[in-house]
Structure formats: structure tokens, C-alpha cells
Amino acid sequence: MADLIYKQLEGMKLRFVSGELRRSDDDRVLSYAMTFQLDLDFTHFVHMSKQFIPGYLDGLVNAIRPELGGLAYHLAYNYFFDAAGNIHSSKALTDVFANPRYYLDEWATADFQHRYHKPVFQTVDGQLQITARRDYRWSDLRPIQIWDLPVIQFEWSLNLMEGHPFPGASLAPASVVILGYSSADEVDVGGISMRKGTRYMQGSSLQLGAIVEAQILTA
Length: 219
Prior knowledge:
Layout: E1 5-8, E2 13-23, E3 30-39, H1 42-52, E4 63-67, E5 78-79, H2 90-95, E6 112-116, E7 120-124, E8 127-138, E9 151-154, E10 157-166, E11 169-180, E12 186-189, E13 192-195, E14 199-202, E15 209-211, E16 217-218
Parallel strand pairs: 1-11
Antiparallel strand pairs: 2-3, 2-15, 3-8, 4-5, 4-10, 6-8, 7-8, 9-14, 10-11, 12-13, 14-16
């Protein structure tokens, strides 16, 4: 993915709505639950996608993968198939990958573990929102402290994939470009490289209870 083209898409934004940090009763798990508004200007999306993949939304074997780091982990990618030629709005595009079955909800293998929950997408007042949750724990299940939490980046981008049909079958679609809300330029944030404009929070600075707008920083 490091060699892929990344482009900032005009009209694509990630807007904080609400958040909360919770601790399990046995002090072994810390969890944050977040709701963000996912803005996408569909006209700009169509224009940009055509520049890189002509006829992108009409190709049956073309596909898309949402990149939602910090919020959810999409397992693979979604072919357009029956949706091809019928995607005329942001909601129709989102419907291609909004099914929760496409998302992982298992603990990652590491000393310091995390687990995404399956996200919930919904339209509120005409705007797409994602509600997501992520858990943290130590693999030996010792109590976790807030200061153990890392810097958490929130990603909202779309990985555009081009299919390659041939007689009788088709190859798996290949990534061509990623369109996102943050800049392609990178900045240093406390020793961590982030794309400029990325929304993030300092996990170790949180408190139990509500997470507020002031705690969602911008690189």
C-alpha cells in the first residue's frame, strides 16, 4: 500500500460527533466508542475516480475498500457486481461496503492487544455517520491503565480497485488510488508521521467518560 497513489479528495471530511472511554468491570479492558460524520462529495468522487479508472463505477469486477483506521478494519474488498451502473449517490456507494459482515471483530495477536468491533453506518439528517468501538488489553490480562493507550489516528479514505476480466474468469482487483480527507503531505507529530490534516487523539491523555471535540486533534 505504501507505493499506491494517494490523493486528497475535495469535499471529503471527517467530522467528530461524540465519543466515550469505558473500562471493563475487571479493569482488564479499556474501550473507546466513537461517532464520526463521513462527508463525501459524490461529484468530486466520480470525477477523480474516472481520472484513474475510466468507467470505474460501471465495471462489474471493479471494487472498493474503505480504509477506516482507528474505527474499523475492513477484511478485503467489495466488488461492484449488481451495484455497477446503479451508484448515483454517496449513500449508494456506501451501501456497497456498509454491511457489518465485511468487518473484523477479533483480538489482534500481540502483547498489547486491540480489537475492533463491527461498525454501524447510518444516515442522520441526510449525512452518513459511523459508530465504532475499539478495545485494548494486555495479552496476560493484567489491568490496563489509561497511560497505556497509544496515539490513535482516525482514517477515512477509499481504496479504488480495478478489476481485470478475461474470458471465463476474472483476476482479483488491484488497488490503483486511495482517496482520503487528509493531505498527501506528511508531518511529524511527536515522532509519528501522519498525513497533514489527520484527526487523532492522544489516548494516554484521555479520562473515563465523554470524549469531547477538544481532544480530537489535527495533524
